[in-house]
Structure formats: structure tokens, C-alpha cells
Amino acid sequence: MPPTVHEKLRAAEGTTIQTRVRTVRSSRNDEPRWLLVERIAKSRSLGKSPLLAAFLRYVCDRQIRGKEDEITEPQIGVKVFGRPEGYNSNDDNIVRNYARMLRKRLADYFLKEGRDEPLVLSIPRGAYIPIFQPRYAMLVPESLDGDEADLDESEETGQELLRELPQTPPLFPGLVPAQRSSSSRMIAFIMVLGACITGFLAGTSHMASRIFQSPAHRASDRLWTSLFTPNRETFLVPADGGLVMMQSFTREKVRLPDYVNSTYRSPAEIERGMQGLINTTNPADEATLTHKVGVLAARRYTSIVDLGLSTKIAQLPEVVPERLVTRFARDLRIEDLHTGNAILMGSSDANPWVTLFEPQLNFQFSPGIEFGGSGAIVNKHPLPNEASLYRSVTGDPANRTYGLIAYVPNLEGTGYVLVVEGVNMAGTQAAGDFLLSPTQMQPILERARDAEGNLQPFEILLETSSIGAAASRSEVLSQRIHPTSQH
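and the corresponding C-alpha cells:
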């Protein structure tokens, strides 16, 4: 069986990373800092992210070799992420996005797998230069002697809780904490006990709020808590408006591999796609137009609809803020959809990553009869009284348009991806508004539950009327529930 599209992408991306970042390991077999870097790069905490590992190795390699002047955002963008020399890091924030993720993964490593590491590695905010620090004495000594051996059971419990707290270096490295007195031990125990009580009350409050939720909000909560989890990133990915505008000139749909490699934005590809578009014999005019379309494609545009939907989703109470990553479609990587959750906005012509999940869907996006006009939604297996194609028609008195919501497993089946798309902006807005309405979503979410109460993959086809570019209230035209065993 030939490799799938995402398998090809993953292989290509891994090869590209290997050629971008060179690490000299043989000469550092006895370097404790580099050995720590390698343990982290290969750890579960970094997941299966070659980009994060390459980022970590690059900055640590330069710091260890005394080349801190090379640890800058533009240099990291060029050496790790393959950006061209002189690229504008203000427009392209991929380094900042990955740095934020790397800081979280480092903290996760030293809390779990690396809790016994003698050295602690961190990358402080505001810069990318790593810092190596020794892990000093535990807050509470591991062995007790003298009068400390006579602690009663309750105080030992408090000490055990203290041992579980993350260990951080002291503010003044030359000073080692003195032996704890009985009064300080009691104060520590009281503080831990207070924290436990506070946590219990907070958990009780959260539990009570869920008990008193309406059935519609409980159903909605099941959806969002499956997408926002503390153990994996959730990528919020708005559509690429620049891609849509460029395709309206070239009249060709950009395939995902070309989108990932950015080959679709090369002058040669744009010129080829625009052949016959302008009727001129002046080569300078053609070159000027090609350049302008290339600039348009390089800009980072998204629609006001996607921007509004992203803002509303980010404010949901179920969101885990430290795990939420907003990423422009052009900066997403195949590995993100293997290991993380994601919310993809826009149809496949505006967000090519959607094509990875279309094989699982009954309702699929089509550019329509004439590219550049309104798209269409194809119904692969129509049920009785269903049409095989849904598209906006010029001159329709009702101004009907269509949107789609799909909930499917990620590429490894370890998380979930939510697709929100429409045949135009009004269709996408209708899908987003419907998605954020617990009352409207409740019947579908209840039907999608399996015997154990877990959500199964589903699709919702919506129809709405548009006034200008805005959508009115939506109506469910059709829905599909896909039993988990089929995925």
C-alpha cells in the first residue's frame, strides 16, 4: 500500500529538520549539560516533536559553545524552521509559538521524568538563551535523624506532600537551607494542610457547578473537555485568507504538500498559474502582477469570522490556557495533528490541513463549478430526501448558504479534531454560531454519545440565509454519527 499524504509529509519534514540542524555529539560525551539536553530531547515530555527537539538542541549547542550571540529569533527561524535569511519575524511568529511550547515541555519534564536530574534547564521568558542550574537540596531532607525521627503520622503526611512539590534552586545559590526547626515544620504542615483544604473546596465548587448545569451545558461540556485536556496541546487554527486570494488569481487549488513546503508561493508557480489571466504583451506588466500576487500570498490574513470564533473559543471555561496554542495554518506541522487536539477553521481551499480528515467524512468540500466562486458541499452517500450537492446559487431569493461541523479523531487516534467550515464566510459563521450554542448542539451531542457516555465522531450539515456576509439562524439539514469502532 503506498504511503498516505500525511506519512509523506511526516517523512519529508523529518528529513528537512535533519538537514537544517547539525549537532556535534561525539565530542560532548562527557559534557553533563549536553547529556541532559539529549535526555530531554528523547523524553516523553517532548512527545514526538522533532521541531521542539531541534529547537532545544540548537539553543543549547550555541550556549554551551559560548555563541550566545547566535541565539536570536531570526537565527532560530532560519536554522531550525527553515525560514529564508532576512525573513520578517514580526509577521512570522513561529519561533515565539514553539518557544512557549518548549518552556511548558521543559517544566513538564523536570516535574515528571526528570525530577531526579542533578541539573535543571530552563529558557526564561523574553529571550531564548537556556540556563543550566544545579538542583539544590530538597525542601525537606530525605532522611530524618535526631528529634525529626519522632514526627507523628499527620506531620509525616505533610512532609511527604512537601516532597512532591517542584524543587527550585534558591535565590542565592551559595546559601544552603538550614535544618528545619520543629516550629518551621509545623508551619510547613499547616501551609500544606491549608493548600489541601483550598484545593478540596475548589474541586467541590467545580463539582457543584457541574451538578447544577443544564442538560444542554452538560452536553456541551463533554465536547469541549474532550478537545481541551491537560495532557496535550489544543491547536486553534484559523483559515489562511492570503491563500484564498492567491488561488483566485492562479485558479488552482493548492495541495497540502505544496502548502507545507511553501512551493506554491514561488514566483515560477505563481507565474505558471496566472498564464492567460492578463492580456498583455509587456513582460514588465506580467512580472509586476506576479510579484503583487506573491506578496499577497505571503501575507498573513484571516477573516473577521475566524477571528471572532477564535476569540470566543479561547474564552470557554473548559479551555486549559497553558495548553491552548493559536497557530496560523501556514505554521502548523503534521506532528501537531498526530499528537494534539485541534480546531481547524475554514474549508480545504482556505485551510489545506482539512484534507487530511476528509476521507473520514461523508460531507466534503468542493471548490464548485467555477473556481473562485462559492464552494459547495458534496454529500457522498445521500439519505432519502437529501441532495447530493449543496451550494449557494446566484440569484437565490433566500440567499441560502451552507456550513459544516465535523468532530473526528486526530491522526493517531489519541485526541480529537474539530472542523468548522462553510462554502463562504456566512456559512462558516453559521457553523461557528451553532457550535457555540449549547441548546442547538444538545440533540446532536446526546445522540453521539456511546454506551459509556463518550462522544463518537459526528458531522452536522447546516443551512442558513445570508444577508451580505452575515448569517441568520441555522437549520440542521443532516447529520451523521460514526461509531468509534469504525475509526
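(Above: one complete record from the training split.) Residues 243-299 form one domain.
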